[in-house]
Amino acid sequence: MHPNPTNARALEGKIALVTGATAFIGRAIAIELARRGAHVVVNGRNAVAGQAVVEEIAAQGGKASFEAADLGQSEAVRAMVGRVAQQHGRIDVLVASGAGASADSPSFRLFKEMSDQDFDSYIRAHWLTRAYVIQACAQVMAGQKHGKIVAIGTDAGRVATVGESFIGGATAGMMQMCRVLARELGRDGIRVNAVAMSYIWDAEPRWGKGSQALEAGAHGKGMLDNLRKRMLFPVYCQDIANAAAFFAGPESDAITGQTLSVNGGLSTPG
């Protein structure tokens, strides 16, 4: 696993909202931002899991609180962002993560086997969950004339992958949205970037079953094993957290509208 960067307090005093932060990648991001000095608002649907992350951060000397909201429900997301802004007076950093590999998200599926409901589910999980919270936080950040937004997605949005037509299509739309928002919101001092990933060695996929032709075992195990074999280097949750923290911190002040792939050499998108 890669070591943490040495700039340990680069986010001192910042208010950071991390969505989907109750487990795996989101949890690692929340802990890393807290290590760097931010007060982290941990978002998720499971209050018990969320409070456990808050307590873990506190045990390491950091500051955190929990806010519940279902990322797929726009009104719940807006209400949650409103509560955070009211309580803390501002939101300096948003890391939009979560939902893409949750238990109610579909797995790898061939296009010919998808239903209309599958189309809606992929778009909601991989795009709208980001759009809802980015829009709500951008309104807060525009009023304060500064902010950092980091969207977490998959490299399927950059590289054509069989079985990920709508995972990739929805994520590509989300990433293009972020590039446009980097231009739109830059006038208000807001930077918008994305981190893309592929197989994560210490994150457990929780989604439902996909197409039998792609699975060769339960829950897409065959396809996941193939991805891992093609990687040159392993990638862990902490690696994604380090990339997100870089975009959240002052080191990236001159960067906006970019997507950074952290994929262990699986692919080299331009």
TrEMBL record:
Segments crossing the lipid bilayer: none
Gene3D superfamilies: NAD(P)-binding Rossmann-like Domain (3.40.50.720)
UniProt superkingdom: Bacteria
Any Pfam family hit: adh_short_C2
Family label: Belongs to the short-chain dehydrogenases/reductases (SDR) family.
UniProt protein name: 3-oxoacyl-[acyl-carrier protein] reductase
Species in which this protein is naturally found: Extensimonas vulgaris
